[in-house]
Structures are given as C-alpha cells and as structure tokens.
Amino acid sequence: MRLPIIAAGILCATTAVAETPVLTVYTYDSFVSDWGPGPKIEAAFEAVCGCDLRLVAAGDGAALLARLRLEGARTEADVVLGLDTNLTAAAAETGLFAPHGIEPPALDLPVAWDDTTFLPYDWGHFAFVYDKTRLPEPPDSFEALIAAEGLKIVIQDPRSSTPGLGLLMWVKAAHGDRAPEIWAGLAPRILTVTKGWSEAYGMFLQGEADMVLSYTTSPAYHLIAEGDDSKAAAGFAEGHYLQVEVAGRVASSDQPELAQDFLRFMLSDAFQSVIPTTNWMYPAVTPEAGLPEGFQTLFRPETSLLLPADRAAAVRDAALAEWRDALSR
Amino acid sequence: MLGLSLGTLAAVAWRAEGASTLGPADWAAVRFTLTQALLSAALSVTLAVPVARALARRRFPGRGLLITLLGAPFLLPVIVAVLGLLAVFGRSGLISQALAPLGLGPIDIYGLRGVVLAHVFFNLPLATRLILQGWLAIPAERFRLAASLGFTAHDVARRLEWPMLRSVLPGAFLVIFLICMTSFAVALTLGGGPRATTVELAIYQAFRFEFDLGRAALLALIQFALCAGAAALAFAVAVPGGFGAGLDRPLARWDAGGVWLRVLDGMWIALAALFLLVPLAMIVARGLAGVTDLPPSVWQAAGRSLAVALGSAALTLALALPIALAAVRLGGPRGAALQAAGLMAIAASPLVMGTGLFILLFPLADPVALALPLTALVNAAMSLPFALRALTPAMAEAEAGFGRLADSLGLRGAVRLRLVLLPRLRRPIGFTLGLSAALSMGDLGVIALFADPGQATLPLQLYRLMAAYRMEAAAGAALLLLALSLGLFWIFDRGGRVNAQA
C-alpha cells in the first residue's frame, strides 16, 4: 500500500521541480555576498513567487554591463540589477533591455524619476567621509578642500570604480567648465587614487588619509554595526552628486512576467526594508517602519546634483581627459 | 598553454568591432610600465644576490623557517600586502610615527618610488629563492675542490658564483620583469594617481569603461610583444653554468669563515628579514582580532580554495614536467623558445584571459558552473613560468651529469624519469608544488569575473568582507589566508627537501 503513495509523492515532487520557473538576476558582487542584501532578498522573493531566484554576480556595475554586452541577446539574464545613472544611457543603447511597463509606487528619491526602462531600488550621495576625532573642522566645499593645506584625501580611479566615476561627475556637475581648474587645485590634496572603493576605505580607516571618497551613508555602518559615532560625511556647499542604482528587465528573457513581478517586488517593503543595513544606501521607497535607528543622524545634502543619463554619457570621456591631465602633471 | 594566453587574446580581438588605434595616453602607459618594471626587476635582483649568498653560506637555527616566511609577500592578495606595507611605510605607518617626535615626516612614498618599493617587497623573496636555488645547485664537491686549492671568498665568487649567476640571473630578472609588467592595482595605489597608469589599467579602461574590445586586444598584444622581447633578450644573455654533476654530499663552506664576512652576511639577512617581515607582522597583528569569529562562509571558502590550490598544483606539475623535459631534450634555440612560450602566461593580462575564456566557453557551456576548475586552470598557467624556472635548470643539470650514463644503461621513458631524474628533481618539484598551491590560494583570479554566490574562494570572500565595511573580519580572513598559503608552501617545500641538508 505504501509503495504507490511514495511513488505518487516522488512523481508530484519531480513535476513540481520541473515546473518551478527560474528567474536569473545579474547583479554586482557585493549584492550577493553573505553581508549584502542578496541572501535575504532571495529568501523573501522565493517565498512569494513560487520560483527559483538565481543571483549571478559579476564584479561591479560597469563589469555587469560589459558582461551583458559580451553575452548579447543569448544571455540567461532575465533582470539586471545594479547599474547606475552613469551607465543607463549605454545600457539602453545596447537594445538589450525592455521597458519595465510598471506603474511604480511613489518614490522617495531626491529627484523626479521618469525612466521607462530602468527602475531605481536605492540611492545615495557621494561624500568625503572623515573621522571627527582626527579632523574637527572638515572643509565645506571643493574650494575649501583646495585651500586646506596639508589635508590628504584618497579617491578611486574613475576608470575602474563606481565612486571614482561619481566624483568625476560631481565636479563636472558642480563646476562645469571650471572642472579642470578644480582638479588642478585638488591634485596636491590627493594622496593617491585606488583601483576600487575597498582599497581607499581601508587606507582611510588605517589612518593613511584624512578623508576618503565614499557615501553620506557610510557613517551609518560604523554607528549601527559598530556603535562608533566618530565617522561623518563632510557637507559641501556645491551640493552632492547623487547615485541612483537601478534595475531593468532583459528583452530576450523567457520569463518576462516573472521579471516584472520581481521589479514590483523590488519596490515593495520586503525588498526595500533590507537595503539600508545591507547595502548601506537609502531605499527608493521608504519602508513602512521608517529608516533604521541611526540613519536620522546622517548628513542630508540640501542640493542633489545629477546629470541626466544622456548628458552623463556625453561628458564622460572629456571629463576623464580633464581629470587625467590635471592629475598627471 | 599558448592557447590559453594567445587564444584568449584572439577571442577578444575577434569579438571586437573594427580596429582601434592607440592614443598618446596609451603610449604614456607603455613608457611608465616599462620604466617601473625595469627598475623593480633590477632592484629586486640586485638586492637578492647578497641575501641569497648570505643564506647559501650560513647555517643558523630557524633558517628554513625564515626562508619560507620570506616568501609570504609574494603569496598574498595585493590588497592585503599593500595595506601591510602602508602600515610600515605609509603616512601613519611605523616609520612616520617613529620620525614624528623628531619633528620629521610623515614620509611620502607615493610615486615611482612607492611602486618600486612595493614591487621589491613582492618580488625580492622570489628573486632570493630563485638565486638561492642556483647556489644550492652548485655541487658540494666544487666547494671541496675550491677549499683544497686554497680559494678565498673572492676566488669562489669569481670561479664558481659568477658563472652560476650568469646562468640564473637573467631568468630571475625576466620573471620579475614580467610580473611587474602586468601590475595594476599596486602601481596605481602606490604610484599616487593617473601618472602611474600601466598598460594593464589601460586594458581595464578599454574593456569596462569604453567597451572597446579592439583596443583592449591591441594593448594586450603590445604587452605580449614587450614581454616576448624581454624574454628573447634574457635567454640570449643567459649562459649555462656547466658545473657538472656531484654526489649530493652535504655542503660545507670553507671560504666564508672570516668575521667580516659573517657580519656582512648577518647584516644582509637581518635587513631582508626586517624589510619583509615587519609589514607581515602588521598583517598578523591586525588579523588576530578578527580571526576568532570568522563567519562559517569564510571557512567554507577556505575549503574551496584549498581544493582549487591542490588541483592547480597538480596541474602545474603535470604541465611543467613534460615542457621542461622537452626543452632540455631539444636544447639550443628551440629549447629556449619552448621555455619562453611557457613563460608567456605571466605576460597575459588576467582580464583579457578571463574575458577570452568567457567568450570561448559561453556558446558551449555555462562558464559560471565551471568557475572553480577554470580558476585552477588559469592559476596553473600563471604558476607555470615559476615551475619552469625551478625545474628546467635542475633537469638540464641532471641530464648533463647523468644523461650519458643513463643512455649507456638503456634507461628510457618512465624508468629514466623515476630512477635518474625525479630523485634529482625532488627539491624543485617540492618548490613547484608549494609555490603553485600557495599562489593559487592567494589569487583572486578569474573567479571574480564569473562567480555565483555559492562558489566564493577565500580571496573573493576577503574582498567581499571589505566591500561590506567589515575590515576587521577581512583582516582575520587575510591572516587565515596567509597561514594556509604558507602552510601549503611549507609542507610541499619540506617534502621536497627530505634527506637533504639545505
């Protein structure tokens, strides 16, 4: 009597496995790490979607886009999550993305959002982070930073790092044609340029530099995870450049509806509430319970700077040449 | 092996749309790359000669341990070694702190000097090891003869050591030159900014900033051509030592007994140990706090890394032995060409190799599923040049000394390998296995290009910890990595030296 029941059970199980759709999401490496949002988000989405969510990591945002371009329309990716506004123009140009086709909920972004291809999931402002005990009076603008003799900062290379490129855009958006002059003035303040964020931040924590290019949300990690309130972000009078991280669905996907479900889920509480203390960014839609304790103490810039995606793509190469010339002297 | 280095390059060029040209910035990168690589290699090798000589003619307790420890900087992930180096030579490092009360400092190492300092830190141990192998390969009988002829230390240097150096130095110089050619993160961080742009960084920019595969391939080709030129030059300069065979008697040195020479050797050993071990001690000190409560995923990653390292070591030996054998058998220019081909994997840009592999594999299989075997394969390719440097000279010596005897006894194939060659290759084989396992352990490699969340190796996990602000845990993971790499190296290297007084 028991054999047929077991057999039936196995049969059911196998058909269930066969029917479970797989949604493949390409994202950057720190998203999928054990300390990033990945594991919690995978569990939360799989609990509601009846599917298998497969997160695949590829370096950072720029590496992610390069990977997608290499794979072209044959890619297995259904959704790409982790591009930012410096990359969306190039990403849209590949023709690999489909319009999201979703009516998003009210977004808590510092800027209006009307992109029909990409939807934001979190955002943050670039800022120079310093240690209050070592630097009681931080500079309050690029001009003041240039004038601060003896002060040393570490930045990242725009060619290999997302924040590095963000700073390039920040100077361009804030000072326009004066950007070469600003870079020339900053050159003596720049201790060195690193490949990625981790090297620079590690050097800063080791006391090698007075300030490091990071995010206004970085002090939240030290405050919430380590109970250390000595780190702060310096407010700059010009305003701060905004990074908006986005996701989009891939046109060649064999799971278009599931991909849309994921994008809707991305803007729901279950996803958004995970972001602040795993990705250490502001969620695109503030969760019902509000931001975690500690985020209220963070510096909030009054002015957000952001070049539109097409303009960011247009000025990028010239801005890089200005940067390189000024710092190579 | 050529397929892995040139084939992947060809795959990237093939995927490129249209040809590209190089701008002035690219040529500036080529110039800087050559300058820093020449300086770094020259300085590493020059400093390594007295250190290796001191280690070759002195015996003291802890000598073996010291030689193993000296190899550590070379085995560490770049990010860890750089932070360790800065803890000593940086603006807030030990030296700057010591100078502060005197009203001096902080010292500023950023610039070409920083790049060279870091490259010497990484490569001095390797140069020392390669040159030391040369010293140990001089048969003990030659030193006996020298002693009976009343040779002074000066005579020994002229008659024995200089011919040995002529055969060993070009190869050591070349290997280090090639390593420095593809340096990127170190050169940028310690070079102080875009002045220190190397060809590898230009490849990076072409690939991910501009997605110009044509330019990336062109730059990689230039990197190859420069390395091939350097290899041709080095092999032209090298002259075989021709010491003949010995009976593997314990080595005794009668020529270096003077007090002055003892002091000199002691000074060189102490200086090298200080330069290499203090930054290492800083890494250990930082890591102690974090190593006790590492998350389980870090331990799992360590297990995965161990498997990759062992696979890579076995693969390296399986590739290196036949190549070394063929190079020795062929001899002359053809043998040298074969050796040079084996060295080329070092000159390959890791980014181009990874991308090329991806392009080649993507239509056939899922590269992500093959991430770990691919990492082991690429690691083996990267270790091959060191393996060949260690194996080929020893194999050549063994063939020169015992080849004719073996021929007359009709020893061939596997029997010849087992009875004649392998016993004489024990030491280089142990070194090869140890080095390739340890190198693979510490290499981030291609896994960073296509990993899924469950496949992280220890270096990747370390980077992930850092990217998640967990610098203390990352320091703990670095300590674990250091211990495992050194442990692997020590076990294999030791195994190769059983019954040998060295």
Automatic annotation (TrEMBL), chain A:
Cell location: Periplasm
Keywords: Periplasm, Signal, Transport
InterPro entries recorded: SBP, ThiB, ThiB-like
Keyword Transport part of the UniProt annotation: yes
Gene3D superfamilies on file: Periplasmic binding protein-like II
Entry GO terms, CC: outer membrane-bounded periplasmic space
Gene Ontology terms: biological process: thiamine transport
Entry's Gene Ontology molecular function annotations: thiamine binding; thiamine pyrophosphate binding
Matches recorded under Pfam families: SBP_bac_1
Domain of life: Bacteria
Residues annotated as signal peptide: 1-18
The keyword Transport belongs to this UniProt entry's keyword annotation: yes
Family: Belongs to the bacterial solute-binding protein 1 family.
NCBIfam families tied to this protein: sfuA, thiB
Name recorded for this polypeptide: Thiamine-binding periplasmic protein
